[in-house]
Amino acid sequence: MNWCILIPLLVGLITTFLGYLIGKLSSKNIKKDEIVLLKNKIAKLESSLRNCKESKSVLENDLKTAKSNATSSISEEQTSFNIDEVKKVFGKKIKENDLKIVEGIGPKIEELFHNFNINTWKLLSETSVEKCQEVLKSGGDRYRAHKPNTWPKQAKLAYKGKWQELKNWQDDLDGGK
Questions:
Q1: Which of 36, 80, 120, 130 has the largest CB neighbor count within 10 A?
Q2: Residue 1 — pLDDT band, cuts 50, 70, 90?
Q3: Sign of the C-alpha dihedral, residues 20, 26, 27, 29?
Q4: Where are the beta strands (DSSP E) in the chain?
């Protein structure tokens, strides 16, 4: 047998075997580190998911409470809307919950209030003047000149069906001021 061929072959087999063992051992450490990192990521994601679910349930409960309060408050003191009575006082047809009946509110401002889900006389009557100003600011600089100081009170009169009182007050107002 030729030793010149056998020795390199033997050295090759030994180095291949050692390389295999070294690779196997180092890959186990890498895999263990990766597993630990992945487990940590999974734990964080599960925690985040739990927090989201808890927040969702809190928001759903708040929404149910708000809907319940809105339903009960609507039924409390609401007067029936009489279109003929309104027409008699104002001389024109007015739709129920038309915010434009409030002196100083036109179609564009009414649209701004609708964007804030303030779309009834009752909701406007319960809105603070500061919130009304926030609604106006959302429309840009062109709405800064408007003064909503009387708007909630006017809306309350409309909501309660006090048309003559509203009309008399509006006759004295200057653009809702």
A1: 120
A2: low
A3: positive
A4: none
Q: Residue with structure tokens 């609604």? A: 135
Global pTM? Answer: 0.55
Residue 104: C-alpha distances to residues 65, 101, 109, 142 (Å): 33, 9, 9, 14
Q: Are 41 and 33 in contact (CB under 8 A)?
A: no
pLDDT digits (tens, 9 = 90+) for 132-154: 999 999 999 998 889 999 999 99
Give the position of tokens 């925690």: 47
